[in-house]
């Protein structure tokens, strides 16, 4: 079985849509897929969160959310302010391992950036990925500023001894400017990690059939096959 962590250089860079695209591509390849979102913030009880969007776009129904907090803050801060229990890293690991036993691929979507505190004792996605021995896909912005943000994120992964499976541009504009075009060449040069995919801007507004049909084309084919079949 295979576990892949999806993180981002910051919030709102397209993690959920990239997670859905990876899930859809895996389903198209005939794999059974599960998606875990350890902590959802900024969504009230009963309202659709990120996992509802993953299901809508990809068709994957094996989705697990472990904690939800109503205020749009880092999970540990949101937990403290709400008085709700904080996530424990060990509980997340147990849940993901159980999903891994039953599925070919488990995608774990983080909250915000790589070092956002997710719960008790200040654990982050780095701690979770290390406990799961799982590589990470980094979702990055396309525009000016992404070189610094992406290099910092990948350096943090490297310092923790974690593998970066690749960088994906979370929202590639219809009409890229000079900075976006240069960043495609500069990102691998400064990070040492290939850009392995880019999701067109607005893809999250597609219907499920259109999204599923296109998802695999947004990634490098060789990388996608190797990543989905890694054990």
Topology, element by element:
Layout: E1 2-8, H1 15-28, E2 33-41, H2 50-58, E3 63-69, H3 75-82, H4 89-102, E4 105-113, H5 125-132, E5 136-140, H6 146-159, E6 164-172, H7 178-191, E7 195-200, H8 208-215, H9 221-228
Parallel strand pairs: 1-4, 1-5, 2-3, 2-4, 5-6, 6-7
Helix pairs in contact: 1-2, 1-8, 4-5, 6-7
Quick synopsis:
It is built from 9 helices and 7 strands. It is of the alpha/beta class.
Largest sheet: 7 strands, parallel
CATH class category name: Alpha Beta
For the termini, the CA-CA separation is: 5 Å
Order of helices and strands: EHEHEHHEHEHEHEHH
Task: Tell me which CATH architecture applies here.
Answer: 3-Layer(aba) Sandwich
CATH fold node name: Rossmann fold
Sheet with most strands: strand arrangement: 3-2-4-1-5-6-7
Q: Give the number of DSSP strands.
A: 7
Count the domains.
Answer: 1
| Secondary-structure-derived class | alpha/beta
| Tally of alpha and pi helices | 9
Q: How much is the average pLDDT?
A: 96
Provide the helix percentage: 40-55%
Shape: globular
Please identify which CATH superfamily we are dealing with: P-loop containing nucleotide triphosphate hydrolases
Portion in beta strands: 15-25%
Low-confidence stretches: none
Binding site for ATP: 12-17, 50, 109-112, 170-171
Enzyme class: ligase
GO cellular component, one term: cytosol
Active site: 37
What tags apply to this protein structure?
7-stranded parallel beta sheet, P-loop_NTPase, ATP-dependent dethiobiotin synthetase BioD, biotin biosynthesis, metal-binding, Rossmann fold, DTB_synth_BioD, 9 helices
């Amino acid at each position: 079985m295979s576990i892949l962590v999806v993180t981002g250089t910051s919030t709102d860079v397209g993690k959920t849509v990239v997670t859905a695209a990876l899930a859809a591509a895996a389903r198209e390849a005939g794999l059974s897929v599960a998606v875990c979102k350890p902590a959802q913030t900024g969504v009230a009880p009963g309202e659709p969160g990120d996992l509802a969007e993953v299901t809508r776009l990809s068709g994957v129904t094996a989705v697990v959310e472990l904690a939800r907090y109503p205020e749009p803050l880092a999970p540990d801060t949101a937990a403290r302010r709400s008085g709700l229990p904080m996530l424990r890293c060990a509980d997340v690991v147990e849940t993901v391992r159980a999903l891994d036993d039953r599925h070919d691929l488990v995608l774990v979507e983080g909250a915000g950036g790589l070092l956002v505190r997710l719960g008790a004792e200040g654990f982050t996605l780095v701690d979770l990925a290390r406990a799961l021995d799982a590589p990470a896909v980094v979702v990055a912005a396309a525009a000016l500023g992404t070189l610094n943000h992406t290099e910092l994120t990948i350096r943090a992964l490297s310092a923790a001894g974690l593998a970066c499976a690749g960088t994906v541009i979370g929202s590639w504009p219809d009409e890229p400017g000079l900075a976006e075009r240069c960043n495609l060449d500069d990102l691998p040069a400064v990070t040492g990690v290939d850009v392995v995919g880019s999701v067109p801007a607005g893809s999250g507004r597609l219907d499920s059939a259109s999204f599923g049909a296109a998802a695999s084309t947004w990634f490098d084919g060789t990388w996608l096959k190797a990543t989905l079949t890694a054990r």
